Amino acid sequence: MLKAGRNFIRSKIYLIMDLSGSKFKEILIKGFGRFRETNTMEKNIIEIIETQKGFFGSGKTRNLHFRQEALKKLEARVLDLEGEMLAALSQDLGKSHFEGYSTEIAPILGDIKYMRKNLKRLAQPRQVPTPLGLTGGSSCIIPQPLGVVLVMAPWNYPLHLLIRPLIGALAAGNCVLLKPSEHAPACSDLSRRLIEETFPAQHVALIEGGVEVGQALLEQKFDHIFFTGSSRLGRIVMEKAARHLTPVTLELGGKSPCLVEPDLNPRLSARRIMWGKFINAGQTCVAPDYLLVNRRIKEDLIEEMQQAITSFYGPDPRSSLDYPRIINQDHFQRLTGLMKAGRIICGGQTDRESKYIAPTLIEGVSWDDPIMGEEIFGPLLPILEYQDLDQALAIINEKPKPLALYLFSNDKNIQSKILNETSSGGVCINDTLSHLLPHHLPFGGVGESGLGSYHGDESFFCFSHRRSVFKSSTLLDLKQKYPPYRLSLKQLKKLMKFM
Ligand code: NAD
Fold first, then answer.
1. pLDDT for the residue numbered 122
2. Best exposed site among 34, 67, 218, 238 by fewest CB in 10 Å?
3. Atom of ligand 1 nearest to the CA of 254
4. Is the minimum distance from the CB of 225 to ligand 1 under 6 angstroms?
5. Contact assessment for residue 448 and residue 428, using Cβ atoms and an 8 Å cutoff
């Protein structure tokens, strides 16, 4: 073993020695170039963080007027760049303007509007009750900005998932360093322009790049890390953050089940499921990942789902302007691999060059198939059947807690059974994705699907420290609390009732 290792190293040394002088020089120069690039990138990152720390320390971002102005500038810039944003989304993901606007630009503008309207209320100290035993004192909670925060975004809603956390971070009075995904290059480039043209880098900066940049960022100490991406990377982020005891928000993914009971009109269920599944070609963190259908309604539902696909995208979805494409060849290949399990009921057509995968319904898969072992994140929908609800609940509960859980049933008993006996980031009854819309519903995962939440008020609190402040009265001074302690345990217990 040792000998084989030695021979291997010797052969590599001979190989290097065999290289002509110029080739060897070229390898050295390339290696040195990469080393220099990494070094410069790290220096840049450190410089940005230091500048932002200095700016945060100046106290400017604490001022509410300053925060309002920042949100106003962001809003104006998003409105200015609306056309370019739609074009970038279409370039990266083949998103139609309708989908681009409704799922990316509208939520950003809606959030800014909500934050601007509610900022004063959210930022003000909140008085809370003080126990009788502390009479004369007062208690309040004062939200404070955290400092310099890092926001890392994925590629599937590349503008929405980068800018919505930014809105919360700005409103809460932080400095922000943004890292968009390298897999949506047009959106990444446009986001950089948007940020550079709107904010000084000491307040908000954006750094583009891939894995190396992500890794270099995670080496640094931030006051908070807001990460949206896969559960695999979520683990890495948490591990890296732990070294600095940096708090994290992890917006992750997973396999979100969709349960269908027979009491609802199958056409309505089918249309709502197909909409939520095939929007963005299934590349949505909360897309229904697999169907659990009551056996009694399975055939009708499948029939209606096929009709829904045709009515949304026509007989050949490839020619529909409303049907997006897969982000890149790696994901295209991964998804075509997943399609090998089970029996395709409809769809299944692919085109490597245009990264097209048809909306595809699959049955006859087992939990040992790769398609059931990972988050699908594409336009493939496996259909599993169950005979009674307890059987379906057992399947859901033995898997990691999902980001979303969908139930199609109007039966109140079934609804409360599902709510009481399962856990998931969010629940949507009789629709898909819509639970993300109300500003008053926090959005986030639980267990493997994430940690922490945002949207509406939660976006503000996610980037704030809720500082507890108690002001004691100087008029009263309870002698009994000081040593030497004179109260008996019985007297102490009576007194503690007033705390
Ligand atoms: P990803 O985890 O691959 O990447 C996310 C970010 O991490 C990107 O900016 C990427 O450049 C960076 N990165 C990649 N490798 C890194 C490394 N080794 N070290 C540091 N940074 C690194 O996620 P993705 O493929 O872009 O997105 C898909 C996943 O995101 C899916 O699992 C999906 O469910 C999830 N997602 C979750 C939500 C949510 O809100 N919960 C929203 C969208 C997507």
1. 98
2. 34
3. 34
4. no
5. no
- State the pLDDT at residue 220: 97
Angle, helices 64-80 vs 160-171, to 10°: value is: 160
pLDDT of residue 29: 55
For residue 77, report the phi and psi dihedrals to the nearest 5 degrees. -70, -40
Q: Residue length, the chain? A: 499
Best residue among 152, 191, 230 to mutate for probing ligand 1's pocket (most ligand atoms within 8 Å of CB) is 230
Q: The tokens of 348 are what? A: 């299944």
Model-level pTM?
A: 0.91
- Identify the sign of the CA torsion 2, 7, 10, 12: negative
Taking the chain, what is the end-to-end CA distance rounded to the nearest angstrom? 71
Q: How far is CA 309 from the centre of its chain?
A: 27
CATH 3.40.50.10540 applies to domain 257-444: no
Phi, psi of 474 (to 5 degrees): -100, 0
The residue whose two tokens read 């992890």 is: 250
Judged by DSSP in three states, 442 sits in: coil
Domain with CATH 3.40.309.10 in the chain: 257-444
Give the pairing of strands 126-128 and 343-346.
unpaired
Q: According to the model, what pLDDT value does residue 92 have? A: 97
- Ligand 1: which atom is nearest the Cα of residue 183? 26
Q: Which of 75, 104, 251, 385 is catalytic?
A: 251
Catalytic-residue membership of 285: yes
Positions of CATH 3.40.605.10 in the chain: 33-252+457-462
Residue 155 CA to ligand 1 center (angstroms) comes to 7
* Encoded tokens for 269: 């269920």
The per-residue pLDDT for 14 is: 41
Which pLDDT does position 30 carry in this prediction? 59
* pLDDT recorded at residue 82: 98
Q: What is the mean pLDDT of each run of 10 residues along the chain (499 residues)?
A: 42 43 57 65 95 98 98 98 98 96 98 98 97 94 98 98 98 98 98 98 97 97 98 97 98 97 96 98 98 97 98 97 97 97 97 98 97 97 96 96 98 98 98 96 97 98 98 90 94 91
Note the CATH number of domain 33-252+457-462: 3.40.605.10
Ligand 1 atom nearest 152 alpha carbon: 9
Query: What span, in angstroms and rounded, lies between the C-alpha atoms of 222 and 319?
Result: 46
Strand partners, 260: 293, 408
